[in-house]
Specification:
heterohexamer; A alpha/beta (131); B mainly alpha (639); C alpha+beta (125); D alpha/beta (152); E alpha+beta (360); F mainly alpha (292); E: 360 residues; alpha+beta; Cytochrome-c3 Hydrogenase, chain B; three-stranded antiparallel β-sheet; 13 helices; F: mainly alpha; binds iron/sulfur cluster
């Protein structure tokens, strides 16, 4: 884990094969479309990329997976998918809690107390700077 | 001597009532009410001591019969007036019907109340007089502080207490008159007086609901009045005596001859709020609590069951007896079932009253000596317990501003004394060795040979246990580890009535054997060959079984006292309750931690089984069934 | 209901399936992954096992020529056995017995032949 | 041993709680109740309620939120009570030693009487562990009595 | 009557083998509202997996979950093998299927037993668990441990199964099948069991996808979805067809799992008969490179997904685990309201909750 | 009375001291039998006594005083009803006293502000609601046969009651299932933990207070046996066999059914139990009243 010393460049990180890039602005529209096409939301994976979060949304239809890749600055709010796929609320709450990702329009908000208790560390999944 | 006692019992309350109305002074009223109560209690005891006998008021000076007739017309006029004010053709019609009957009887048929004796106090009447005068008087005493508080609560500018106490005392007089009348015309008069008092008391608060409910009470009771009037007219047409004693002594009747008696019974059903006439009694709970206590325990509804019980020997072993038994048993089950869904304490009490009256009616209908004994025992114990319960609910209502049973959760730690009384009251309704259960035992043994009634009775008893237990459960709910509650401060008359009634119910329960042997059995044996019930030492026995009252009482008493003493010596360590490991120490002691690590109050509530027992679900079939049963009763006699 | 009636009645007349465990013990299966034993003589204190142990149950003091093993941390995965270059680790078929305390075993060259418990179990007497 | 001691040993009721285990040990605890191991032979019942329980059987490395629950449960058990930590996780944390949300070993939260190693702890080991715990009961009772006598 | 009962159910509760809290609002005993609270077993394994050596992680991920533990290891290894481009020997693939299906078998029996227990059918519970012990015995014989078998390794498997043991597996599953024939009908047709499961906790087909449910729960709602259909491992040679039920209630879920036990027995027979000989482990060198891979397999409870990213060192950049129960939990909030309190345990168990892998 | 006083003292002694021993043994047998039906060995036969002794020796941390008082009243009324039954007293009184005990037990459950205790108490009421009619019908049927509610009259019959009331065996089994808290109706509390109410109405009791409940169960078991024996009072050994048969049937039913909900219980008791008993009752009515 040496790359955390310098400003992390986006290209330093591997990109999942076949992932489709997406931005905050067209995320909801794209996901709505996927929903109409009958995709299932499998899960989302969040990665700490220094200044940014990289979030993969994994979908599946007829045994083929589709990955959406979203890069957002840490301060930015990500629109919640929980109104399209109800099940997203748990995934997003987890990201919010473990990584500190901000979401707008969360269906059920556990307020960072889904898995962690009062005496736990906050956002424990972030990469430690002195690691 | 006798006339003095009767005067005290019947006439004095009328006079004191009127005095209460005109002497608008709190202190004077207080003395009048207390004096009235003392006099009534004394007189009733004196009456009981003097044995049964007849009495016709002296003719000199006043023509009592005419006076009664004038009173009748006056009352009917009042009813018609009320009907006009309400613009209710129903009320006007029912009152007019009675007026027509009365006019025919008085002016065309030429009866002048000359049956003799006009008043007759047998054992049954004496028992009724005792209940009315003692429990009723206690209720008036309870009403003294209650009405003060009540008017304070609802912010009334001008006190309406004079009117209130007038009707209250009048009521007692009328009831005494009713149960002592031998002449049916007299009975009819007193009957209508109780109707009037009841209606006026229900509408006492004057708000819309009260007024509406009072009109409902009026027309329902007028139906009863019409039935009675019909019965009287019919009796006259059939050239039969219009006096109870002679009617009963006249032997057993058949078929059409039973019709007047059946009509009188229907009159009784209305007053006793039997299905389908239960509506008015439920509506009556809008009245101030002393009124409810009075209506449900010693007066009004008891007039209904009294009438049926009085007539019972006249329809022994007939079609009427079968139907009355079934109608009563049906009411018993149906009302108990409906009570389960209620969380309004007064409504639960009301349904319970209806249900118990159903049981009494049913016993009267079963009409064996044992059943009649059961009915009398029930009347006695129900009166005491119910008075106690209503009074306690009234006190609670003034303190927590609610009569919702759910709001009484954990009341034990706020008002231990009142709750104690309430619990005694409830337990006295459902648990051996209390009197009500002894009576129920007697009635069960009495019905064992009547499959339908027995079946209904068993079901009803089960329901009864359900709603009462639920209620006490709410009251007793306590949080472990809380300090022992302090006794609350209550006005003297509250404490007096509570203690008096609680002690009475306890003593009478323990004395159930002697009570049955010395009081109930003679009352039954007056009209039946045997009593079916008796005492063996302190035990209550009948032909088929025996209730070892004293031994059960002793054992249970010890079972309560020993742990109480033991716990007094040994403080049990307080600990928070089990909440799946997430209990937290909070001020309430009953919070648990839940999502987001936040704390949440645990809430508990009783079950109401909306799906199974709601009024909406059952009333629509219960009322028609009850109506059909009554139609069958009448129809069966006509055809 | 009737479906299961036969089964329960059959059970009633059958010998119970229960293994009378503490009274008669089953032979452990061959190749069962039981407790871990070190051979202080074979060991060269290279520390490979310690690095790979997923449960951090082994500490090797190279200088001291000592190996500290905490059996109450070991998850009996057998990974150390796999990585040891000298076959100094032996996994027995027996499982470890419960105890009142968590002991630590110290191994070294044959000066200390048997594993010594460094922590006396408290209040057992 | 008094007859009370005997009956204490012959009727251990257990409460099982999972403070963050992987399920492996949980199911082995459950398996103890099933026909092949049938711990009811020793009078063991799984009562599921701390107030009725004598032995608290814990599986799993203490998670921070669970630690609070564990303390509550332990407090709600009547004396004399025993604690048996089942599985390496409950004993010391095991593979989870470097996880941020575990305290590692339930003895960091409440006193533990018997440690049952194994990942997962085998039913036989669990039975052994409970038997070991039972042997400690008379001693605990004596201790409790002397403490009570002191406070009285 | 607006009063409600609000009570906690869990974390410590005898019907839940694992801690989970449902804050229930009841009217009488009808559930009107439910709020699940989690976090009683969250350990932080994803983070620990970043701190560990990637070879150690095989043992760590196994301990995410103690029942389908082997399958976790398989999924993790598949992701690493994908990153490192390791080709598996065919025998290893088959062995993974054999152990995987043995796990499914014992897991489904375990679940059927727990379901029986959730409605108080104790003897049925006992029977299922008695039969299950046979599978555990054979697992112990072949791998050396009953529960956490640690048989999987990157590049293949750690142990081979001898022919003698293969024969034994066949006899054991024959015996199991015979015994299951006696009790599976109880689950499928007993009046009292049906009374407690039919129409309870229904999830309609249309709602299923938005609730995100997976595995037998999804299949019970009429959607044929099973990660084994992708043919990973040796499944592509085994002619796999998923079990599907339509009614979407607890009964359907029980039936799906009951039928899947038979299916697993069939797959086992086939796999053992077709088992090729040869190596069981491919040797590899170095550390996972800078690449990411997603792998998915079917656990007894549904599809399991791993996202693994390497960075060229022996530590990994990220290990993301999406477990089936994590996907099934949101559906609980739709299944419970309107049911009776007594149904709550049955419904919660019907998704076969594995809180330990949900929270990791 | 048919008993002389010496006899009465002996019977009271038996009811108070011997009955719980027999009840406890039966409970032990029950547990072993349940275990055997499940293919297990099960606990020693004296297990219920060990359990009770152990509970006696533990330090209670139970909820409220009211509950403790209620538990004692529960015990006393259970003993009392057994004494009433065995001394040949009024059966209906016995049933009422029995019901009183249950009511106190329920009130105890209510008196603690604890979720499971409370819900357990609610369910216990429903259980009472379910079995009470059956017991009363049983009593009424006996009355119709003997012409008396006094138990001792049963012993004066020539023919055993069983011949005329065979369907009441079913009723007795239903009563036993509910009273002994066996599946499918183990709703308010149960011996084993795996159910939605934890330990239901007894959740908050511990130590010797819980031991009292165990003791009550022993008496209850004895009482149910005696109730069953009434059916064959002419030969008490056969009566006992009949009782044991009912118990055995109860245990088997426990092991072949899933727990149902309270509404199912009410439906079952009233839609099946009541009609069955009513049918038998109707036949008895026909022969004892209408025919005469
Ligand atoms: S390693 Fe440091 S930065 Fe990272 S989560 Fe832990 S404390 Fe926070
Ligand atoms: S915080 Fe954690 S991940 Fe970061 S450097 Fe420290 S140990 Fe490593
Ligand atoms: S067996 Fe596994 S846990 Fe035990 S010492 Fe070896 S590597 Fe560590
Ligand atoms: S046991 Fe083996 S691996 Fe461990 S230090 Fe010794 S030689 Fe090295
Ligand atoms: S590091 Fe420690 S806690 Fe983590 S798995 Fe290994 S032994 Fe267990
Ligand atoms: S000791 Fe092993 S099997 Fe037991 S809970 Fe921990 S990881 Fe799971
Ligand atoms: S799904 Fe359940 S059984 Fe399987 S590993 Fe996870 S927790 Fe264990
Ligand atoms: S659900 Fe979780 S614990 Fe269970 S097998 Fe799957 S991954 Fe493992």
């Amino acid at each position: 884990m040496t790359q955390t010393d310098t400003q992390p460049q986006e290209k330093q990180f591997p990109v999942l094969e076949g992932a489709e890039n997406i931005t905050i602005d067209n995320l909801t529209a794209r996901v709505k479309k996927l929903d109409e096409e009958g995709y299932r939301l499998l899960t989302a994976t969040c990665l700490d990329r220094g200044e940014k979060y990289e979030i993969y949304y994994h979908f599946d239809k007829d045994l083929t997976m589709l990955h959406l890749r979203l890069l957002v600055n840490k301060e930015e709010e990500v629109p919640s998918l929980s109104l399209i796929y109800l099940c997203a609320f748990l995934i997003e709450n987890e990201m919010k809690e473990l990584f500190g990702v901000k979401f707008s329009g969360l269906f059920v908000n556990y307020g960072g107390r889904l898995f962690l208790g009062e005496d736990s560390d906050i956002t424990p999944m972030l990469k430690c700077v002195d690691c | 001597m006798k006339s003095g006692i009767l005067g005290l019992l019947i006439v004095m309350p009328f006079i004191i009532g009127i005095l209460c109305f005109f002497l608008r002074n709190d202190l004077v009223r207080r003395f009048l009410v207390i004096g009235n109560a003392l006099a009534l209690i004394g007189a009733s005891i004196a009456l009981a001591m003097s044995g049964n006998g007849s009495f016709t008021p002296p003719h000199e000076g006043i023509n009592w019969g005419q006076l009664i007739a004038i009173g009748d017309f006056f009352l009917l006029a009042v009813f018609i007036y009320l009907g006009i004010v309400r613009k209710s053709p129903l009320i006007i019609g029912l009152a007019a019907l009675q007026t027509a009957g009365l006019i025919w009887l008085e002016f065309f048929a030429g009866i002048h109340g000359e049956t003799s004796p006009a008043l007759y106090g047998d054992y049954l009447s004496t028992i009724m007089v005792l209940i009315i005068s003692i429990v009723g008087s206690i209720t008036t005493l309870y009403a003294l502080p209650y009405m003060q508080e009540h008017e304070h609560h609802i912010h009334i500018p001008v006190s309406k207490q004079p009117r209130f106490f007038m009707y209250l005392t009048l009521f007692l007089g009328a009831m005494n008159g009713l149960v002592l009348s031998n002449n049916m015309m007299w009975m009819y008069f007193f009957w209508e007086v109780t109707t009037l008092c009841c209606v006026m008391l229900i509408r006492h608060n004057g708000d819309e609901e009260a007024v509406n409910n009072s009109y409902r009470a009026l027309w329902m009771n007028l139906i009863g009045g019409v039935a009675i009037m019909g019965g009287l007219v019919l009796l006259h047409i059939q050239h039969r005596p219009m006096a109870f004693q002679e009617l009963i002594a006249g032997g057993r009747y058949e078929g059409f001859l039973l019709l007047p008696i059946a009509l009188l019974c229907i009159g009784g059903f209305t007053k006793a709020a039997q299905m389908p006439f239960q509506g008015w009694l439920l509506g009556a709970m809008v009245a101030p609590t002393p009124v409810s206590a009075l209506l449900h325990s010693s007066t009004m509804v008891k007039a209904g069951v009294y009438l049926i019980l009085r007539l019972a020997p006249a329809f022994e072993n007939t079609f009427v007896t079968k139907m009355v038994g079934i109608i009563g048993a049906f009411t018993f089950v149906a009302a108990a079932m409906l009570a389960i869904n209620q969380s309004n304490a007064k409504k639960v009490l009301a349904y319970s009253t209806i249900s118990n009256l159903g049981l009494i009616v049913s016993c009267a209908g079963i009409n064996t000596p044992l059943a009649i004994s059961a009915a009398i025992l029930l009347i006695i114990f129900h009166a005491i317990s119910k008075a106690m319960l209503f009074m306690a609910v009234g006190v609670v209502e003034h303190n927590i501003e609610s009569r919702d049973i759910e709001r009484m959760e954990g009341l034990l730690s706020v008002m231990p004394f009142t709750v104690f009384i309430m619990v005694i009251g409830i337990l006295s309704m459902i648990l051996p060795p209390f009197g009500a259960v002894i009576s129920k035992w007697v009635s069960l043994e009495a019905t064992a040979k009547m499959p339908v009634e027995m079946f209904l009775l068993v079901m009803g008893s089960a329901f009864t246990v359900l709603f009462w237990t639920k209620w006490i459960g709410r009251l007793l709910e306590t949080t472990p580890g809380k300090p022992t509650p302090k006794m609350e401060k209550l006005p003297f008359f509250y404490v007096l009535s509570f203690v008096f009634l609680a002690v009475t119910v306890l003593v009478l329960s323990v004395m159930a054997g002697p009570l049955a042997g010395k009081v109930v059995a003679p009352a039954v044996m007056q009209y039946y060959p045997a009593a079916g019930i008796g005492q063996a030492q302190m035990n209550l026995i009948n032909d088929a079984g025996s209730f070892p009252v004293l031994s059960i009482f002793t054992v249970i008493l010890l079972a309560v006292i020993i742990p109480v003493l033991y716990l007094r010596m040994k403080e049990c360590p307080g600990s928070s309750v089990y909440m799946c490991g997430e209990n937290i120490a909070s001020s309430t002691g009953t919070a648990f931690r839940t999502l987001k690590d936040s704390s949440s109050e645990m809430q508990l509530s009783g079950y109401y089984f909306d799906h199974f027992f709601s009024e909406n679900r059952h009333i629509p079939w219960m009322n028609p069934v009850a109506v059909i049963l009554i139609i069958v009763l009448i129809g069966g006699l006509c055809f | 209901m009737a479906n299961f009636l036969g089964a329960v009645i059959e059970n009633l007349f059958k010998k119970p399936a229960t293994r009378p465990y503490p009274f008669t013990k089953r032979e452990p299966f061959k190749d069962a992954r039981g407790l871990i034993k070190f051979d202080g003589d074979k060991c060269v204190y290279c520390g490979a096992c310690s690095k790979k142990c997923p449960a951090a149950a082994i500490r090797v003091e190279r200088a001291e020529k000592a190996l500290y093993f905490e059996p109450f941390k070991c998850v009996t995965c057998g990974f150390c056995v796999e990585v040891c270059p000298k076959d100094a680790i032996n996994q027995e078929f027996e499982y470890r017995k419960p105890d009142y305390s968590k002991s630590i075993e110290k191994y070294g060259p044959s000066a200390v032949p048997a594993p010594a418990k460094t922590e006396a179990p408290p209040s057992q007497a | 041993m008094s007859s009370f001691d005997t009956s204490n040993i012959k009727s251990p009721w257990i409460l099982h709680y999972d403070t963050g285990s992987c399920n492996g040990c949980d199911i082995e605890v459950l398996a103890c109740l099933t026909p092949l191991y049938d711990v009811e032979r020793f009078g063991i019942l799984n009562v599921g309620n701390p107030r009725h329980a004598d032995i608290l059987v814990i599986t799993g490395a203490a998670n921070k939120r669970s630690a609070r629950v564990l303390r509550n449960l332990y407090e709600q058990m009547p004396d004399p009570k025993m604690v048996v930590a089942v599985g390496i996780c409950a004993v010391s944390g095991g593979v989870l030693h470097n996880c941020y949300n575990v305290l590692g070993g339930v003895d960091k939260v409440i006193p533990v009487d018997v440690y049952v190693p194994g990942c997962a702890a085998r039913p036989e080991a669990i039975i052994d562990g409970i038997v070991l715990a039972l042997q400690k009961i008379p001693e605990k009772r004596k201790l409790l009595k002397s403490r009570e006598a002191k406070t009285a | 009557m607006s009063t409600r009962t609000v009570i906690p159910m869990g974390p410590q509760h005898p019907v839940f083998p694992e801690p989970l809290q449902l804050k229930l609002s009841l009217k009488d005993e009808k559930i009107v509202d439910v709020a699940p609270a989690l976090g009683y077993v969250h350990r932080g394994i994803e983070k620990a997996a970043e701190k560990n050596d990637f070879t150690q992680n095989v043992f760590l991920v196994e301990r995410i979950c103690g029942i389908c533990s082997f399958i976790h290891a398989v999924c993790y290894c598949m992701a690493i093998e994908d990153i490192m481009k390791i080709e598996l020997p065919p025998r290893a693939n088959y062995l993974r299927v054999i152990w995987g299906e043995l796990h499914r078998l014992h897991s489904h029996m375990l679940w059927l037993g727990l379901l029986a227990d959730s409605f108080g059918f104790e003897s049925l519970f006992m029977k299922f668990w008695e039969i299950r012990e046979r599978i555990l015995d054979i697992l112990e014989k072949t791998t050396g441990a009953r529960v956490i078998i640690s048989a999987c390794a990157i590049g293949g498997v750690r142990r081979d199964i001898s022919d003698e043991h293969l024969q034994e597996i066949l006899t054991v599953i024959d015996k199991c099948e015979k015994e299951l024939n006696g009790i599976i009908p109880v689950v499928m047709s007993d009046t009292t069991v049906k009374r407690r499961t039919v129409g309870v906790g229904v999830i309609e087909k249309e709602k299923a996808i938005h609730l995100g449910i997976v595995g037998p729960v999804l299949r019970a709602s009429g959607i044929a979805q099973d990660a084994r259909m992708t043919g990973y491992g040796a499944y592509k040679y085994l002619d796999f067809k998923p079990v599907v039920e339509e009614s979407g209630d607890c009964y359907a879920r029980a039936v799906v799992r009951a039928k899947e036990t038979y299916q697993s027995i069939g797959l086992l027979r086939k796999a053992i008969n077709q088992l090729p000989s040869g190596d069981i482990l491919t040797k590899y060198k170095g550390n996972p490179g800078k690449a990411a891979a997603v792998s998915r397999v079917e656990q007894p409870r549904g599809e399991l997904i791993y996202y693994v990213e390497g960075n060229g060192t022996k530590n990994l950049e990220r290990v993301r685990v999406r477990t089936p129960t994590f996907s099934n939990v949101p559906a609980l909030s739709k299944m419970l309201p309107g049911m009776e309190l007594a149904d709550a345990p049955v419904i919660v168990l019907s998704i076969d909750p594995c809180i330990s892998c949900t929270e990791r | 009375m048919f008993l002389n006083s010496g006899n009465t003292v002996l019977i009271v002694f038996m009811a108070v001291f011997v009955a719980p021993l027999i009840g406890g043994l039966l409970m032990g047998i029950d547990r072993i039998l349940s275990a055997r039906l499940q293919g297990r060995i099960g606990p020693p036969i004296l297990q219920p006594f060990y359990d009770m002794m152990k509970l006696m020796s533990k330090k209670p941390i139970s909820g409220t005083k009211i509950q403790i008082i209620c538990v004692f009243v529960y015990l006393v009324s259970m003993i009392l009803s057994l004494v009433l039954l065995m001394t040949g007293q009024d059966l209906l009184v016995m049933v009422l006293v029995l019901a009183m005990g249950s009511i106190f037990f329920i009130l105890g459950g209510f008196s603690v502000k604890s979720p499971y205790s409370n819900i357990g108490a609610q369910r216990e009421i429903l259980q009472v609601l379910a079995y009470e009619p059956l017991i009363i019908f049983y009593v009424v049927a006996i009355y119709l046969k003997t012409g008396s509610f006094m138990t001792f009259k049963v012993f004066e019959l020539k023919d055993p009651l069983l011949y005329s009331m065979p369907l009441f065996v079913v009723a007795l089994i239903i009563i036993m299932v509910i009273k002994l808290r066996k599946s499918p109706f183990d709703l308010s509390t149960s011996h084993h933990a795996h159910q939605e109410l934890v330990k239901g109405i007894t959740t908050e009791l511990s130590g010797r207070h819980l031991a009292v409940i165990e003791l009550v169960h022993m008496y209850e078991m004895a009482l149910l046996m005696v109730l069953a024996m009434l059916l064959f009072a002419t030969n008490l050994w056969i009566g006992l066999a009949l009782g044991l048969f009912c118990l055995f049937a109860t245990i088997v039913i426990d092991n072949i059914t899933a727990r149902l909900t309270w509404s199912d219980m009410l439906r079952f008791a009233w839609k099946i139990g009541v009609p069955i008993t009513a049918l038998n009752l109707a036949v008895i009515y026909y022969f004892s009243i209408i025919k005469k």
